[in-house]
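Students often ask why inverse folding is considered easier than folding. One informal answer: many sequences map to the same fold, so there is more than one right answer. In these notes we will look at a single instance of the problem. The structure comes first.
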């Protein structure tokens, strides 16, 4: 079965530093007095050329799978106001900046050489598990259908997602309790990744708008076919009703991705 490859930072969060490091709490980038009281140098020997807000946005991009205008408003604002310089800093690390201006989501990906040269990387490809892949497919399909129907925000119940995963259990599977535990862990991991918005203990989550650019339509189709073939090799075709109807907006967005 094909799996989604999730690019993550090799550097541990503690090594990159917490979101609000000691000593910087007073340096509010939105403070109108900041320009008069601070310079770009933030610590002794600082040779960096970015302002505090720009550095914060850069670190957020390195630490997180994605940032968005709603989940990281300060970092998103700093990114959009200083896109060129932040993009350049990522390029120095052999990373590319990806931005979806419609959904207001930004993420990084490994740069690919035009000559086939292999670049050093801070990222590694971690495959989502089978259950996590099913959860992502369900969220992407649910989000697409709901937004096409005019819903501004899209919600999903934890139990509905767990039941959806159970629907992909092969007929020969007998470990019902183990399968349910893996399904619940998958929901928790997708929540931890930021694609389900809410507290880990919530029974209902909002689906992040980042689900669309991070899981484009063509990949969604490929994964649905693969998942169905796992259960029934003769059952999966691209005409399956699971795919639903594509709207022109869906096609346009996915071509941009």
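Output (designed amino acids):
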């Amino acid at each position: 079965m094909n799996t989604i490859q999730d690019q993550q930072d090799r550097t541990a969060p503690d090594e990159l530093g917490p979101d609000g490091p000691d000593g910087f709490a007073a340096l509010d980038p939105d403070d109108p007095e900041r320009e008069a009281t601070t310079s770009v140098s933030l610590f002794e020997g600082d040779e960096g050329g970015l302002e505090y807000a720009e550095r914060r946005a850069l670190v957020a991009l390195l630490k997180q799978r994605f940032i968005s205008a709603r989940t990281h408003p300060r970092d998103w604002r700093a990114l959009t106001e200083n896109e060129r310089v932040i993009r350049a800093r990522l390029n120095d690390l052999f990373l590319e900046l990806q931005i979806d201006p419609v959904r207001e989501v930004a993420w990084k990906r490994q740069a690919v050489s035009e000559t086939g040269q292999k670049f050093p990387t801070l990222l590694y490809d971690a495959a989502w598990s089978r259950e996590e892949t099913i959860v992502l497919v369900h969220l992407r399909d649910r989000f697409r259908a709901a937004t096409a129907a005019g819903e501004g925000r899209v919600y999903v119940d934890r139990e509905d997602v767990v039941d959806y995963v159970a629907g992909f259990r092969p007929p020969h599977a007998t470990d019902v309790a183990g399968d349910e535990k893996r399904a619940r862990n998958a929901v928790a991991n997708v929540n931890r990744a930021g694609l389900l918005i809410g507290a880990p203990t919530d029974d209902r989550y909002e689906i992040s708008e980042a689900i669309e650019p991070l899981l484009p339509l063509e990949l969604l189709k490929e994964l649905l076919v693969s998942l169905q073939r796992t259960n029934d090799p003769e059952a999966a075709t691209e005409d399956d009703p699971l795919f639903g109807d594509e709207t022109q907006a869906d096609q346009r967005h996915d071509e941009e991705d």
